[in-house]
Write the structure tokens for this entry.
Amino acid sequence: MNQKSFQSMKNSIHYLKFLALSLLPTFLLLPVAFSQNATDSQKTPPSTQNLLAPFWETDSKSNLPADPAVTFGKLDNGLRYAIMPNQEPPSKVSLRLLVNAGSLMETEPQRGLAHFLEHMAFKGGKNFPNQQALNEYFQHIGMAFGADTNAHTGFDQTVYKLDLPNNTPDYLNDGLRVLRDFADGLLLETSEIDGERGVILAEKRDRQTIDERIQNSFFEFAFPGTLLPKRFPIGLEEVIKNAPRERFVDFYKTWYNPNRFFLIIAGDVESQKMLSLIKNHFDSLQPPSTTQENPNLGQIASYTSHAKVFTHSEITSTNLEFLVIKPHEKRFDTGKERIQKIQRTIPYNILTDRLDILCQTEHAPFSGAGASITDLFNTFDICYISFKVKP
């Protein structure tokens, strides 16, 4: 950080004295859930094992009526589904298979395999035995990888996406056959795994930007003692290079189970006919003999105040961020909770509006500012105020 930026930061910190006075009424509105005294900091935080749960577990306890246009249900093996007829655009159908498993479910020797496995889904399964067969099918029906078929892996979920250009029975059946391969039919051939290692390593290199370094540094600073800084989906180079097939199979068999699947279909379909197709393709999925518990993400080592300065030659601006992080308070999606969520959000919106006004004043030392409240993976509640310091 150069001298000019350092002086700007000092000016901003002094300016906070003015902010403290002008914004005091708003600060007093901030939720008391984020206040903390010495006694609170000595309490043992609750386990995070049960907080990392799929959204449908909380939605199942909601008292809000479901959209009558959507057919919700669950097969006997545990797979959940939602079907939403939508005739615009005509004949088009979108399929999504959400897997409630991501990089947070990895063990140390598996770091990166959740994302790697997502790549392997397009390398061959029981119905489409290799990448060529799958690509030929996509090309035959006018689909392109990226535009019409893709996937992504996050910390807590993996999502596979197919957008079908036609709603004929053949198209729908084949689309579901592809998703069934993803669910339990992946071949995970050693030769295909080895051939994909370089692709994953190249993706990892492409991600090594300054923004990625800032994000990694932030997670290490904000969530010490937890799995979060150690489970970025891209994983470790050593694992990507050397993980044997057995390690892929272990992750796949452990976490890809029907009780962790949510199949979502939206488009120009009839609900009952679509449900019949779902049952034809997914009823035979076998539930696990034992249920694998979600990992305990750990607890932040200390909730006491601390600070960090991150500098790098590629950073062209100076930002100040003030955060308060607390263990997440589990909430269900009820009418009362939605009202309370609005009440929790309003003070931060007011604060952001006032900061926007202050940004327009002649001597404001920052060009942008904002405040917000959110939660991270249903595990930590975070409120923050950020400032972009003028050069």
Notes: The beta strands are 71-74, 80-85, 93-99, 149-153, 158-164, 261-267, 318-327, 366-376, 380-389. The two ends are 11 Å apart (CA to CA). The domain at 66-282 is CATH 3.30.830.10 (Cytochrome Bc1 Complex; Chain A, domain 1). The mean pLDDT is 86.
